[in-house]
Amino acid sequence: MRLYLLPISTRRTLLYCQKLKVPASDKQTWSDKIQGKAARTWSEWEKKESGWQKSVVNYGNLLQRRIPYEEWGLKSVPPLSKSRKDTELKGTEKVEVVYPKSLLAMDKVPRVLETLATEREALHRKRLIWCFVGMPFTLPVGLIPLIPNIPFFYLVYRAWSHWRALSGGKHIQFLLQNNLLAFTPSAVVDEVYARPKQPLPSTPETTTAPDADQLKKLGPTPDVAPETPEGETLLLSQEHGKKMTQALNLPALEIELERAIWQVETAIKKSNAETATEGTGSTTETLKGPKSDDLTNAEDKKP
Predict the structure, then answer these.
(1) Where do Basic and acidic residues bias regions lie (predicted)?
(2) Whether pTM exceeds 0.85
């Protein structure tokens, strides 16, 4: 496999794992079989012109787009099976980590990887537990005829998603602890980042990631641009995200970049809107001047 670190903004970086080849010793697990079956079923439902299956797919795609891109990135990393662990420990080649040296210094790459692998660990574990807690309460929905128990299957999917994210993070930590990574700056990636000429969305304040309240105690994600530590600027537009996938010849990366750019850009716009609203509110208070009650009290206090 090969790892990619692609900064989305001056504060956030996308992790993506490219699967080069499956080790011969790795057999298809039950999880892989279920995932393959679900993907085929989903594809069949997408092709339908109408009906409840088409509605489920439409709403499902909207929900998937809102799942944090950090979770999708960790899910792209395969779980660390015993055979894969032995293969990586005995292997002569290290796992390549591709990154833009114009935005990430080599000595910071391990820290960025470690942060991405561990910062959401407690959150995924907590939500995995809650998914299992909620499953029994959705079972009565299965008594409704003709319609599958969608709430139950949704919780099953989210539980699997959190488990895969946890497993991907553990795999990254294993590679870091055993010095099994080779950091490779990419001129191709740097060239794509150098292309945008138009100003990209930015905000003077750092935007909060999805579920930031739960992540506050875990510390911030390392900056990719130390010269702008207080604010946040988008580094890739949707157009250049597509050019990135073309330059790297990674079609599967396109949807991951599209989702990540949309989430970060939305957060930046929301932050700017909130800042503008707060500014308008304070200006309005200033223009209103002191309240009549305050003036009355001031008169009463005169000697």
Answers:
(1) 288-303
(2) no
